[in-house]
Amino acid sequence: MTTIEFEAIPAVQARQRTPGLVVMKFGGTSVGDTDKLKRVAERLVEARESGAKVVAVLSAMGKTTDELIRLAFEVSPSPNPREYDMLVSTGERISNALCAMAIHDLGHEAVSLTGSQAGIVTDGSHTKAKIVEVRATRIHEALEQDKIVLVAGFQGVSTDTQDVTTLGRGGSDTTAVALAAALGADACEIFTDVAGVFTADPRLVPGAFKLPYITYEEMLEMASSGAGVMMARSIEIARSYGVKLRVRSTFVDGEGTWIGEEDKAMLEKAIISGVTHDTSEAKVSIVGVPDRPGIAAKVFRALADAGVNIDMIVQNVSQDGAATISFTLPKTDVSIATPILEALSVELGASRVEHDPNVAKISLIGAGMKSHPGVAADMFDALAEAGINIEIISTSAIRVSCVISAAHVERAVEVVHARFQSFAEERVNG
Hints:
VC0802-like, Carbamate kinase, five-stranded mixed beta sheet, 2 domains, eight-stranded mixed beta sheet, alpha/beta
C-alpha cells in the first residue's frame, strides 16, 4: 500500500516509484461533450497499448459545475456547505463513469472511482478542502489488474466527518498532481485547450511564444499572477514531491511545455519566461490610518481570520500622523472584507475606506531576472511610454507586478511583451 501525507509532514518522504505510470488530467473543455469524452477514451487506450500504466483524472463536462452552482443558488441564497459539496462533486463522477464506459467499448478494462474511493483524504473544510493524505491501495489493485483507472477530480473525503469535500478552484489539477506524487508516477500530464504555457496570453498577444520548459518557481509565479493554465496549489505539490509536469493540448499533437526543476544552463540564457495579467482583484484603501505600531497587524489579522486572501500591500509615508494602507484582494472577497474594514475604520479613527474594482495586475516573470539588473526599469519604461500609470508595485526575486487601471490591461500586456520580446524568443529558441 502507498500512503503519502501532504499537510501533515514537514518534508518529502521517500516513496516507491511506479515505472511506466503516467497520470493524465483532462479539463472541462477536453471532456465538454460525449464525442470529446470518446476521444479522451481513445487517447487513454493508446497510452495503455503503448505500455504505460494509466491513471486519468477528469474534470466535469464543460459547464456542468457552473450549472450545478446555479441550481444551488436558485434553491438557497446561502447553500449549506456540506450539501453544496455533495452537489457539485457529482459532475466529475459523471464524466469519469462515461469515459470508463467508452474505454470498455474499445476493448480495455477500466474502473471509475470517486475521490473517496481513490483514497483522497482531506481536512474538513467544505468548498476549499486541502488534501492531507492519499491512500492509494485501491488504485494499485486496479493497476495490477491491468485496468485504466479514472479518478473523479476536485473531491475527496474528510478524515474527521467522512463527508464528501471539494478542493476549490483548480481542484482537478490538485487531485492529479497529488496522485502522481503518491503513486510515484513518471509524469503528470495536464491536457487542456491550449498547446502549452505561453509567454503571454495568445488571445491578447498573437505573437506570444510557447515555452518548451519552465521551472516550478516560474510556473508558481505565473499561476499566482493570473495565468490560468494551472493552479498554484498543484504546482506547490509538484515542486515539493518532484513530480514532473507537462501541459499539452487535448486536441492538437505536440510536445507541450514541461515544468520541473531549475536548469542552470538554460537560465543563464533566459531572463524572461512570460507576462501575465489578472483582472480578478480589487483595490481597497484605508485612508487616514493612525501611524502607530500594531495598526497593520490589527487590520490584516482581522481579514485573515475571516478567510480573506490579500495579495499586494503598500503603505504610504505618514503625513501629520496618518497614513494610507492600500492592498488588493479577490473581488469575490470584497463583500466579506467591507464590513470588517468599515468597523475597523471607526475603531481606529481612520478617515474612510475606499474601494476600486476597476484595477488589474500585470506581472513580468523570469528566473533569470534575479541576475540581470534593469528588468524592472525596462518594464516601467514600457508602461510609461504607453501612458499607463502604476498604482502599486510588488516584487519577488523572479517577478515584478504592477497594479494598473483595468481599462489599460490589454495594452499593458502588449507593450511589456513587446519590450521583452527578444528575451522571450531567446527563451524559446535557446
